[in-house]
Amino acid sequence: MTKGANVSLATLSDDTGSVIVSLGWSSAAGDGDADVSVLLLDAGGKARSDADFFFYNQPAAADGSVQLLGKTPTANGSEDRISLDLTAMPADVQQVIIAASRYGDARFGTLDDLQLTLADGSGESLLVFPIADAGVESAFIFGELYRRGEEWKFRAVGQGYETGLAGLATDYGIDVDDADEVDEENPTGGEAAAAVTDAPEAPAAALEQVPAPEVPAPAAGGPTASGVEAPAPPKRPRTAKKKVTLPKATRKSLAENDAWRPSRLFPASSLKSDHERETRATSILLSVMAQVPEFGRRLTAAFGAPAGRMETFTEVSLPHGETPKRPDGVIRVERAGRLWTALVETKTNGNPLKSEQVQDYMDIAARRGYEAVITVSNDVALEGSPLVDVKIDGRRKHKVALWHLSWAEVTQQAQMLIRHEGVSTAAHASLLEEFLHYLQHENSGCHGFQNMGPAWVPVRNGIDEEILCQGDQRAVQVVESWERLIRQVCLRLGGELGQKVLPVQRAKRGSDPRSRRADLADQLCEDGRLHAEIRIDGSVGILAITADLRTGKLRSSLEIPRSEQGTPLSWTKRLVRQLAEAPADLHIETLVEGRGSGPRGTLEKLRPEPGELLPKDGGRITGFRLSLFKSMGSSRGSAESGFIRSVDAAVDRFHSAVVTQLERPPARRPQQDRATATV
Q: How far apart are the C-alpha atoms of 366 and 210, rounded to whole Å?
């Protein structure tokens, strides 16, 4: 679509009761980020109350009509997704604004490949709106959904605000609470009007035209105009309703000794066969989804399921030719008389999904009018590299979506709810705690990606003997396994920290993932290294992990910029002080303009003489690189001696011992970007 164009959703698909809106962007530096937001407006173009503003501190509507699903990795970066259940949207809501905002002095003009994608309930992409003219905006309206009679339409807006999230919110009638931070030149704070940067372009001729919404003219003043900077708080304030989470400190056990084992709601110690593991894991997962609405909704909203009463079933027999088929489970969600149904196929203990089995369930779902087939296994899905190959009969009017969940993702969602975000009752928190204990039990078989595949050993041997040639498909398989491992590391770390943790892909959005992986495989054949970068929300920089298959070493590293104030010697002294509790074997390397590497040494040697990091020739310091090294596991699996376990251990040690000690530089964050809605 082009800017200003409009289209009716009904003309694009028969399945638009629920839609998924994805906002995407990329950054050449790998550190560009933004937060999505949604506003519900009445016929007058205003929010009915502050509860109609959904952002990072208020991510979901009580009726399920809006849910911010967070970021998901794509082939070339990440996308932030929003689930909209249009059938649950209140009748007096006439417009749904889809926006995003950046904080500090960051602007959308520094991001590449801005785009909005809208998909129907089956996951099929209906439209793409690319944006190429973003500039100084710190908040941006990508598009809007609006009613015309009984139908919903979409308009490609592509307009922005220089006054950030609060400028956008106050423009639509949201009561922004900014009382604790007053701009001396503009004491009204969030009352500043939003500055709109562009008028819509001429819409595409093939799409229906409707009048563009009125946009307020720019107003003088406000933090952007005045240039006054406000100090950033250590953490964004939360305004959402208080929820129940697990206490950080566990109570002292009443057991007489350590030999006493606590009783468990979901025992796993007796599991012996793969069939037992699969059957029990399926039943427990589906039961907890139905009993804990927040958890069930979290897992199914991304698949287009409405918010409603959920029931789950196991070992259901469904007719299919002469022999009935028995999917592992069925999920049914009912809302206002409408049923949404998904068949579930699970695998545990590293067992692969079978294409013919999933194909049968896709055919059954299509014939019976079901909406989706969901597969669950320890594997991690990659864009452009499907776990199973299925054929879709294009002649069928009814479309069935195929979705995949990794057990690592299931674990992460449970952790996020009970440890960080909270659930509605203590009973639900306890139930999720028992479920999490089951998933992490050694006998459950639900431990996530745990095998680098059959190509791992031949590729390592080929690199060691220098006989691996570019174009070898086994190297591509290793690159795919490495990408799956890194995405699982992000899921695990994100669940433990309660932060967004995503892999960084420094590639142009829209590039073919297969070609990108082939290039990385050729690079592996040439230098024998696997490399990945991880962005942790709120962290000082990007964590890099490199596996050198020639030396058998793992390197975890982080580059930090130099300070803008003080002298070079004061920078080195301050860095060494910050790292007082870091391991003595931490390597610190000075980055020098024009030649990259400069003086280096271990923290143990630099503590008494931080000045050893200063270039002898007076070269200009641009920053510092911190690194820890570790021997990598030899086997391809996740045993104690395995490669996967060694990568997990390396990332955990570096984050806990180094990253957490570094102070994030003060952000140049305007007041509005930290504003919160008064709920």
A: 37
